[in-house]
Amino acid sequence: MLNQIKGLHHVTAMAGDADANNRFFTGTLGLRRVKKTVNFDEPSVYHLYYGDEEGTPGSVMTYFPFPHIIRGRPGSGEVGETVFSVPEGSLGFWKERLASKSVQATPDESFGQKRLRFSGPDGDALVLVETGNDTRAPWTGGSVKDDEAIRGFFGASMRVRDSGATEELLKFMGYEPVDTSKGIKRFAIPGGNGADYIDVQTLPNMPRGDLGAGSVHHIAFAVENRAAQLEVRNALIDTGYQVTPVIDRDYFWAIYFRTPGGVLFEIATNEPGFARDEDPAHLGEALKLPTQHEHLRSYLETSLPQIKD
After folding, report:
1. Which intervals hold domain VOC (predicted)?
2. Assigned domain for 72 exists
3. Residue 104 within any structural domain of the chain
4. Can you spell out the DSSP letters for the chain?
5. CATH code (residue 55)
6. Structural domain contains residue 105
7. How do the pLDDT tens digits run along the chain, 309 residues long?
């Protein structure tokens, strides 16, 4: 069993309109945009990162906004809900705030916790959950104050047709089964970074999901450094998984593999972080380009959709 994984690192999803996506996560949810860059494989498309003040691993939601992408079709083999942690007693504030932004939110309860379920601009399945022991510092430079602000991820859920192999993988990665509610199994990483929970929902008759706007592209798990990442990579390969080589993503190093249930997993390093090429006081303000795309700057600065900050 591995002991290098420390919870979630980030969650990356697909979007349609970049400006609407930015307004929702910075304006409605009050997160900080910590990086404005482009997709490594398709530089005509932004890669936008939202999180806490520093973009701490476990707090960062990222998006690829493709202007003409179709809506995703929810199904099995993908992340279902992305769950954010908020302070106890704050869901009333959030329900009113979301309503004021024309976002309908539905209160519910799961695993004995009060939650608020709602959709992002592209139908993204998002949840706020009240947690009483989350000591992570939120971003308060936006329009949401400390007593209500999002602390980071609580976790995420996955929909699979057969959970057996996925559960074994999570256990191998260091997650422990901690509870079951309404047929959903909860796993937690001991001593994690706060973004510690994965819920596994088994839906044997659900068709596979189709990737599109509102879909999660992949979910990333945090390791401290490249040495820990290499240990995880070697262990996964020894277990039979097809794992990519290490890829430099500028703000972290990444490896990827597909799970038995169909979900794309990434293992990402906490180093070097989002301040490697930008002053911490001005994260996410300038367009940052990977070295291999820097020669496209003049073109991209005029052709990328406008984001109104």
Report:
1. 7-131, 152-270
2. yes
3. yes
4. ------SEEEEEEEES-HHHHHIIIIIIS--EEEEEEE-SS-TTSEEEEEESSS--TTSEEEEEE-TTPPBPB--BSEEEEEEEEEETT-HHHHHHHHHHTT--EEEEEETTEEEEEEE-TT--EEEEEEESS--PPPP-SSSS-TTT---EEEEEEEEES--HHHHHHHHHTT-EEEEEETTEEEEE-TT--S--EEEEEE-TTPPBPB--BT-EEEEEEEESSHHHHHHHHHHHHHHT---PPPEE-SSEEEEEEE-TTSPEEEEEEEEE-GGGSS-GGGTTSSB---GGGGGGHHHHHHHSPP---
5. 3.10.180.10
6. yes
7. 999 999 999 999 999 999 999 999 999 999 999 999 999 999 999 999 999 999 999 999 999 999 999 999 999 999 999 999 999 999 999 999 999 999 999 999 999 999 999 999 999 999 999 999 999 999 999 999 999 999 999 999 999 999 999 999 999 999 999 999 999 999 999 999 999 999 999 999 999 999 999 999 999 999 999 999 999 999 999 999 999 999 999 999 999 999 999 999 999 999 999 999 999 999 999 999 999 999 999 999 999 999 987
Q: Which domain holds residue 141?
A: 8-303
Residues in the chain: 309
Contact 138, 146 (CB under 8 A): yes
Instruction: Look at residue 31 and tell me if it is in a domain.
Output: yes
Q: How far apart are CA 94 and CA 171, in angstroms?
A: 34
Is 222 within 8 Å of 268 (Cβ atoms)? yes
| Tokens coding 29 | 């949810």
